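Memo to structure team: turn this sequence into C-alpha cells by end of day. - J.P.
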Amino acid sequence: MATYDFDQDNGVDLVVGALDNALYDSDIPKVIQSEATQQLSQDIPTDVRDYISYFYSVFLAKKNHEMHACYESSFNKLTDKYYRNSAWPEAETIAPLVNHDLFFLAIYKELYFRHCYSKLQPTKEQRVQSYENYCEFFRLVLNSDDIARNDVQLPTHYIWDVIDEFIYQFQSFCTYRNRLSKKSEQELNFLKQNCQVWNSYDVLNVLYSLIQKSKMIDQLKAAKQGQDPNTVAGDFGKLQIYRALGYFSIIGLLRVHCLLGDFTLALQMLEHVDSAKQLFLPRLTACYLSKNYYVGFAYMMLRRYSDAINTFVPALDVIARTKQLNSKSSQFDQFSKKVDQIYALMTICYAVCQKSESASQNLHNTMREKYGEQLAVISHGGPEALSVVEELFVFGCPKFINALTDYEVEEEPQLHHREIFMLDIKNQLAAPVVRSYMKLYTTMSIEKLGTFLQVDTATLRRQLIVAKQKSKQYRNTSGSLLEGEITNSSDLDFALHRDVIKIAEAKTSRKYADWFVRNTYKYHSLQDQSRT
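Reply from structure team:
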C-alpha cells in the first residue's frame, strides 16, 4: 500500500513568498517549475497551473484560510472559465506540480470527480475510479502515521464536504445500479464485474473507522460530563483533521441509516452529539441543516410528528437568519432545495398534529406561502388529501437506496417506504375532519356527529378510536433522541361515554409579547413608508 511522505525541505521553499500573492508563479523553485513545464500538457491554462501550485503551497503551509479560498472560490471561478463543460486535467498530468504528493493528489482527484458529478454526467468508469480514490484517501488517513506526524490540516468546511460527497456518490451509484431496465448487457456485465464497488459494508466501515480512530464518542461523552475531551482523544483525536472527520462521520451515519431505512439506528447515532453542542468545531450551516433534516425525517417515519417539527424549526430559523450570508456560498442552491424539502415535510407534520408547535410567525407565514393550498386540502381530508400528502412526501423525502443488489429484479426502495408512510397517514387524515365538528361542542351524541359526517355509528366509533389513538405520540423531553413520553399531539381531547362524546379543548395562552413586538415593527415600517 502506498504511504504518505512529506518533503519538508521542498515544502518550505514552495511556500516562501506565496501566501501574500493572488497567484503563485514566480516563487515556485526553478527546478520544479522546469520539470513541471516539461511534463505538463500544453493544453492546461497558465491560470490553472498557477492555481494548483499555489493550492499545494498553502496546503504544505497549513494555511486553512487560504486553502478554503482556493477550494470554495478559486476552484469554482476557474471551472466557470475553463471547465464548464469538460473535466479538469487528470491527476497524473498535474502531479509534477505537487511533487507527486499522494495525499494532495487524492484531494485533487476528489475535487476532479466531484466536478464530474456536479457539472457533467459521470461515466460508469468514473464512478468506479471515484470510489477507488475515496478508498485511497481514507486508507491514507486511517493507516498512514505521516498524516498525524506532520499534523496535516484541511479546512473544516472541506472535510464536511468530503464526507457529504462520499455518501452522495454512494447513494448515486446505488440508484444507478438498481435501474436495471435502462441498462445494456455491457453495462450489466460491468456492474457484475465491479460488484464490490460502493457496497454498503465498505461505506459503513469507513465511517465507523473514522469515529473509532478519532475516539469521537469518548470525546463527546467527556464533554457531556464537563471533562476535557483531549484527555480521552488519544494521539489522533486531538488533531483537527481526525476530530472533524470523526464528528462528521457520525452525521454521515445518521444519513446512511436513514437512506437504508433504519430510522431507529439513525437516531441512536446522535446519542451524544446534541448534548455536546458541537464543542470542538465551528457550526457549519450545511452540516447543521443536514443533521436536522435527517433527524426530523427519522422522527416522521417513527410517527413522532411533534418531534419532527421541533427538529425542523431550529434549522429553518438558522437559514432564515443567515440567508444573506448563505446566498454568497457556492452551495446556496443546495440549501434552498433542502429548505423547500423541510417545509414540505413540515406541512405534513402540521396537518397531522393539528396543534401549534414552536415555530416563529415568520416560519408559519413562509410555510403557508409555499404550501398553504396543500395544507388546506389536507385539513379537509378525503382522497385529494392523500394524493397531496403523497406528493409532498415524494418531494421532501431523501432518495432511499437498496443495499442489496439483485440483477434480475428491479426494486424501488422509495416506493416501499412511501407505501409504509401512507398507511399511517390514511388513518390520520380522518381525524382533522372529526375534530373540526367536535370543536363546536363540549358534549354531543355519537349519532349527531355521525349525521354531520354522513357515516353510520359503527364506522364513526372506529374513526373515534383511531383519532384518539393517533393523537397520542411519543415526544422527546430530555435525554437521547429516542427517549420520550406519551403526550397529546392535538389541541383537542375527548372521551366516549356510552353514546355521548365529552370534549375538552386544550387552550394555549396567547404570546402577547410576540404580538406586540411584531406589530410594533409593522407600525415603524408604515411610518417609514409614510415619511418617504
